[in-house]
Amino acid sequence: MKLKKNIAISESGFIFNPEIGTSFTTNSLGVAILKQLKEKTSLDKIKDSIVKNYDIDPITCEKDLDDFLRIVNQYNLLEEQS
Amino acid sequence: MSKLKYESPIIKQINAGITSKFGELNSLKPVTHIANVSVKSLIEQYGSPLFVINEQTIRNTYQDAYHAFSTRYPNVQFAWSYKTNYIEAVCKVFHQEGSWAEVVSGFEYQKALDNGVPGDKIIFNGPDKSDFDLKIAVENNSPIHIDHFDELYSLITITEQLNKRAKVAIRVNMDTGIKPLWDRFGFNYENGQAWEAINKIIYSNNIDLIGLHTHIGTFILDPNAYRVAASKLADLAINVKNKFKHDIQYIDMGGGFASKNTLKGSYLSGTDLAPSFSDYADNITQALLNAGFSTEDLPLLILETGRALIDDAGTLLGTVLANKRSADGRRSIIMDFGVNTLFTSFWYNHIISPAQECSLYTEDTVMYGPLCMNIDVIRESINLPPLNKGDHVVVHRIGAYNMTQWMQFITLRPKVVMIDTNGKTHIIRESESKEYVSELEITPDYLNNIDL
Fold this sequence. Notes:
By secondary structure, chain A is α+β, with helices and mostly antiparallel strands. In chain A, 48% of the residues lie in helices and 13% in strands. Chain A has one domain. Chain A contains three helices and three strands. In chain A, helix 2 (43-53) crosses helix 3. In chain A, 26% of the residues are buried. The mean pLDDT of chain A is 90. Chain B is an alpha/beta fold. In chain B, 28% of the residues lie in helices and 22% in strands. Chain B contains 13 helices and 21 strands. The radius of gyration of chain B is 25 Å and the shape is globular.
């Protein structure tokens, strides 16, 4: 799973898709996840880094990450998987 | 190294549109304490969901309302509307402040007596008064507000049987320029029905007409409607004086003042729309003062407002049971309280705040209750920050009509706690148990053999 190449991510959580001109806002954890997705980090590694750095259990983290990625995909921000 | 505080990742699309100057951020500000008592500790001690009544807010609101009227009119009396919230402790705070009782059933009447209210300070309203109820009210010298002719004739018979006089007012309905016209209660002003009732009472042997009563509607946002109503009642009172040389002792303007809740479908928020007590007081007292009464004949002004006096003092604390995603991608959240507990969610878009620190990032959310029923929706759309399972929320302005109209449906009703003026908490109504709910049921013996 990978973020589309041209998606711009600002530190403040502003996301811009220049392909169709849509913009989004996300929170700090959202920024961290999207940045890692852009760097092709695996979902397992993303999950591990969240559990390591945040006060959260692995099950809730996985559930929230799945939910977040479903919405990111719905917003057409992910590369189509071959 | 301590870990960072977790908040679920969220993303939402920015939609360019016309900006609104009316947007409010209330739901984003965490409310961690009620009257300096932490929400977390309240839920730990008393469970969730939990109704919380702030005694100081009741007293402050009552005193504001009383001040608004008593500084404009020489003779003012409030009567606490039992149906709005008849939990004993709540009623007694109002009675300590000086409120009489206003009741609309035999059950409420008995509650008022049990609360120590003298019979002559219990105003008996409503269309449902049995002969038994009327007899008790006559014996106790209570002002009975007659709703229909059948009640009037019953009362004439009862006073003859008891050989005792009854003190009455008639409820008058009228056109005050607002819709809907509440003509189902009382006698109509415009078509002469009210005069017909007055004539019958004046010429009856055992009934004394001491007051005139109206209650023009509920959640009235136009205070001018009260000016019209007060003028019409004053006009009746002056004509009674002129025709029969009979003094009307009081004019009872009923209730119906709006609280600051936002009604469903309203574009502006309730805090912007609701008139102040001074707005209502201005209209009512000016109409009475300008009606033509001589100074010594000015009737007592009685007010039965309920909602506007108690809504702000009540909060409901609740807990997140689960987060979900709807088929269309919208976030939804399931709470441990539903329309069974928070009945007023059928009418209002309640302000709901998170009860713990949170970020400013929000998502449009559907808030559901816990019932396995499709109608159990607390808010169809509310902007909330991400909330985790077990997080708490505070629902504001729920003091009116919830603790009387709540339903024992699917689950049990929760505790009600009062925070006193010293910050001490008291349970004022226990949570229900299965035994409490079952104790009225009687199962025929032949149904007790179950062999599955």
